[in-house]
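Hi R.,

As promised, here are both runs. First protein below:
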Amino acid sequence: MSPLWRDEIAIYLAPRKIALARRARGLKPEVVASTEVAVTGGHPGDIRPAIARLAEVLAEPTWQDATARVVVADPWVRYGIIPWPTTRLDADGRLTHARYVLADTYGPGLADWAVTLADTPPGHSYVACAMPTPMRAALDDALAPARLKLVALQPQLIVAFNAWRHRLPPDDAWFVSLDDGSLSAVHLANGAWDRVHTARLSADWVVELERLQAFGRLTRAAGHVGRMFVDAPIWMRQHATPVASGLEWLEADGGDGGSAHELALLQRVYA
């Protein structure tokens, strides 16, 4: 089969759940299968339970013989805004500089993590993303028996932001990505990221929503409150409505609000 016509599997990998969507290629590509399953014993400190559960699901013929695009939940990702260096650096030097900035923020535990840098025009700050180094090898081992070729590995915040960026103002706005157990927020200034925050969510949703609104108050130094756009599962939006004044909830144009948030996210990978 020509690679141009090979089906694609999008996989959302999180500590306590995984989701998959299969897209049939052809003249009219469409999602032909989707599922979401729980991960028993999963937690942010260990990728092995989620990888093992993924390998079990991939034993089913529905999820075999295709290319694979994987979205990694934000609890397994660390983000940083890296200032443009004052001295001229090559690609390796920029990566070393980014590692230094990330270590200064998160500690030496990230020393052996895999770091990638966003493409940025010279002279501008750029975004760095770090993931545990063993994750790529573990994914390859889980995908190989199902004859899946990994062609993309992206963090949740990046995928969600790219899906909604056409709906966001270029300046003084927060974009927040919520999931069961995690919150990631990025502030936009002059069309670029200038601040990024991540946090684990507790069971007290009133407290967490107040935390979201606190992110917005961080922009009041300019004399006004920046708008806050939130991408979240539909059940979170419904639960938050009584106390979430001032938040702008992003709704998919395609009418897929009834779908699981993770599966909707995966379908937007194809956009």
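And here is the second one, sequence first, then its structure tokens:
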Amino acid sequence: MSRFSEAAAFVRRDFLAEKSYRLSFALGALATFANLAVFYFIGKLFGGRMAPHLAPYGADYFAYVFTALAFFGYIGTGAGSYAEKLRQEQAQGTLEAVLSTPVRLPAFLAGLTAWNFIFATFELAVYALAGALVFRPQLAAANWPAAALVFVLSAACFASLGVISSCFVVLFKRGNPMAWVLNNFEGLLGGVYFPVTVLPGWLLWVSKLLPVTYAVRAFQMAVHGGAGIAAIKYDLLALAAFDLLLVPGSVWLFSLSVARARRNGALGGY
């Protein structure tokens, strides 16, 4: 069986499971609209105070946070869904059975969250449609080829962080410090809800250690400022460096975690 066929089998399984929960999807769409409305009115009330920090992007507060949330929500699928899906496999008692088959780890990791990315793409389309029809952010200056490159580099980076996060699930079941950091600090310190220049100096230095900071800044510059690849090259180089370190490193760490869980007889536990 090819790696594509292995991943497709996971996608088909997750699609059939998701299809039986239509109400969940409808509520998710309503939550997306409500989330947009919250930031829209925050922008109406306080957006003017952000103007000096938003000047480099050429966007108002709502346009900034609209694109940041859409972008971060999509790439964050990789960071959050690996551990979540792996924990689900453990609880259902299927993890050990799947990993006992000839499925290769890269194919397993690709298939594990492939459906999440497909569904996230659909949610992103709903998000964009709601924004375009109701809130109408101005994106006429966008440099989409540069934004696409940022998107690809960022997605690979965050998927790798998600794989590393899943290592804690394999080894410890509960208690995942990586997921805790990703869920609580990436958006706050990475410029998703406001530009990082708002942060005090010591937190600004912390934000420079996070890949999301470079991803969001480069994406905002490309989408709102029309920046080309040359203008955001340093952010792109930072993301590429994270990818070179994290992509192979995450697969290696996951394979070590699975091997250790097998030796300890803990792979089937939950």
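A quick note on the second one: The CA atoms of residues 53 and 195 lie 6 Å apart. Let me know what you think.

Best,
J.
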